[in-house]
Amino acid sequence: MSEEYxxxxxxxxxxxPKMFEGKYGGFAVGAGWYPILEILCSNIQHHLxxxxxxxxxxxxxxxxxxxxxxxxxxxYYDGGDDExxxxxxxxxxxxxxxxxxxxxxxxxxxxxxxxTLCDKHEEEHQERxxxxxxKSSGLEE
Length: 141
Prior knowledge:
Blueprint: H1 3-15, E1 27-28, H2 34-53, E2 62-69, E3 72-78, H3 82-96, E4 107-109, E5 115-117, H4 119-136
Parallel strand pairs: 1-2
Antiparallel strand pairs: 2-3, 4-5
């Protein structure tokens, strides 16, 4: 795993220990979606803390899995309420329009594995794919 991933995972686990206290499987998404996840978790915990202070506690959110599936963010969790469900849906919709690699505006790209990428990262992906195809066919430059 990359150093960037390790730093992000440690930061999230330290900042939101209640959410990531169990086994959650890590962050199986590209770094472009890290800010979305950080904002989502911050908003969730703020909501939970606020509800607690109001005397109307909501069950603590615990994350069970975070991953990319069919080019979209999937955030699986236990606990929460309708407001948190809305926050998660909004974050998933935000990721649907953001490059998983860099966070810039992106769109769903097909070509075997569906990913959400900006034009730059899609072109890089296509270049790697062409190079791999040439190598496997023995037509290397």
